[in-house]
Amino acid sequence: MPIRMSRDEFEEAVADALDTIPQDLLDRLDNVVITVEEEPEPGSAPGLLGLYVGVPLTARDSSYGLGQLPDHIYIFRGPLTRYCYTRDQLLEQIRVTVLHEIGHHFGISDERLHELGWG
Question: Does the pTM exceed 0.85?
Answer without folding.
Answer: yes
